[in-house]
Amino acid sequence: MADTTVPSIRVLLGDDHRIVREGLKQVLADAPEVQVVAEAASGPEVLDRVQALAGALDVVLLDIALPGMDGLDVLQALRRSHPRLPVLMLSTYPEKQYAVRCIKLGAHGYLNKSADPDDMLAAVRKVAAGGVYVTPATAEALAAAVGQHGAQAGPEALSHREHQVFRLLTQGHSVSQIGAQLGLAPNTVSTYRARILDKTGTKNDVELALYAERHGQRCHPWGFCSSSPTPPSKPGHETTTRPGLAQQTPKVGPPLAMGLAPTTHEVCHV
Length: 270
Fold this sequence. Notes:
The protein is an alpha/beta fold. About 40% of the residues lie in helices and about 10% in strands. The strands form two sheets. A five-stranded parallel beta sheet has the order 2-1-3-4-5, with helices on both faces. It has a two-stranded antiparallel ribbon with strand order 6-7.
């Protein structure tokens, strides 16, 4: 007898890498009540897809680093235009770097792409039901943020826009390149840079890069966040050691399929 189950959780995938979206679809296909109804490869495309689907959408799975519009900016836009639509943030960034920031901006959960497929399905079901999905790592990051109580340390002291500029500066982008990517005037970027240097207690971009390294925020120009000083020799041909969603798809090409978070290198742009 044919399966007549009607999908009750309609999902939009927002990620700029097709191989990642295909891996996510494989994972979600294990749940008969979950259906991927749309995909988007850029920030503006996510907003367009959500607007077109109107009330025919239950969850948005959203990457942080998207072309055209940063995933966190997309999150903020969705909170304004569709405040009841649950958004689950996905990234290879460790929870301590982005989970708190995402939750504060209105995300219903934050999940690292190295997570177990069962955790992915549990997260989708939880946020679709109106809950907030919090992993132990995210809970720890939230507790640490509460403990700081106004005496923020490290990159958490930066505003959302400052953190965007901070991340791009530590990737080696120039002020003009950052302005073009974020849609800001070079003078505005320079102002943000000055604030960042002041808040981090650094004097120049070299010291800022060292600061980012100490706080686990350093991103190499080709897109890898590293907790060690030695980047992989060939971007797109990483050796992976940690299990998770990445096992669903081949580990070739940029980015690492499903954003596997290796033990020594993090893929920043997926």
